[in-house]
Design brief:
Layout: E1 9-12, H1 14-18, H2 28-39, E2 45-50, H3 63-69, E3 77-81, H4 85-92, E4 106-110, H5 113-120, H6 124-129, H7 131-140, E5 145-151, E6 155-156, E7 160-161, H8 164-180, E8 184-192, H9 199-212, E9 218-223, H10 230-239, E10 244-247, H11 269-278, H12 287-301, H13 309-312, H14 332-335, H15 337-340, H16 355-361
Parallel strand pairs: 1-10, 2-3, 4-5, 5-8, 8-9, 9-10
Antiparallel strand pairs: 6-7
Helix pairs in contact: 2-12, 9-10, 11-12
Length: about 350
Amino acid sequence: MDNLPKSVIITDDTMREGLQIESADIPVDDKLRLLDALGETGAKVISIGSFAHPKWTPQMACIDEIAERFVPRPGVRYTAAVFNKLGYDRADAYYPKLDVRKRSFGTLVEMCDTFARRNYNRTQAEQIASLDAAIAAAKEAGAEAGSVAIGNPFGSNFEGPFSMEQRMAHLELMIDKWHAAGIEVTRCSFLEAMGWNTPNQVRDTLIEIKERWPEITEFHMHLHNTRGLTMASYYEALKLGVREFDTSIGGMGGCPYCGNGRAAGHVPTEDFVDFCHELGIETGYDLDKLIEAAAIAEEVVGHPLWGHISKAGARPRGECLYPREMPFVETLHEAAHFRLGPEVYDGQIAPWQDNERAALRR
């Protein structure tokens, strides 16, 4: 039986994951406009970007200016991605406006050694060798529970598919180390850049983890939509009670290290929010505000994005039903009548004829 959650935590990663793969020439003012729009959507946590070296991520060369200039919205926690002590110190200088301070203790092992080298500049073996120190630091800090994350759990563009046995072996390695330190593991993250996920793999892996380690009750999904199956994979996760998901406006996003670039993509935030609402799951988001943010995002990046709800609108109901006498709607601009008004299809021919006019024609 499905175990759909009553509510979910959807973290929109547009400003980091999305913009890191777009042009480095987007003006700061445009980025701030998009960040402001995201702040109006009902998001509870927003990443403003990453404090990365501009040699590798030139799109984030302006991150300090964004951190200085953005105006936080009440009720939103603003954070950023940091990858080392230098990045952390730069970001933490803006605390409490910007909050990158840890709220949990975790370990990560990347299943693809090639990707570990390309993305983290560390080998898989080096990641594993660092586990003991990370867990010891967590214990010293008083951690009551730990989390584990596996990178690219389903397969690699460089090394091929990974089996269930391989996934479980990597998880067992980390979990056993946490247990040896007297700390239980309550959370598991899937961090996938290369989009190898399929709905059946996600379902089977979650079931296996729940059976082996019932102490793990929280799951987090960051799955790229490279091959178009991630919405279905997220649905399988929802049916098993998973509550934490990452998305981005319009499906914007990608990874320069995996060989897919912008094609890696994400599940569009507006599409997933709409889906959750149709399932009766609370998200905290205002779908109309998300659609407006998606329109702004397209203006900012200068090209169409890949969301559907932002272009076709939510399913019309009640007073929002389309007028039966509306004329042809063909272009994407005309299809936006649900938010721009009927003037966008002025001048189109009308296929509808009421009974009186039809009788006159006969």
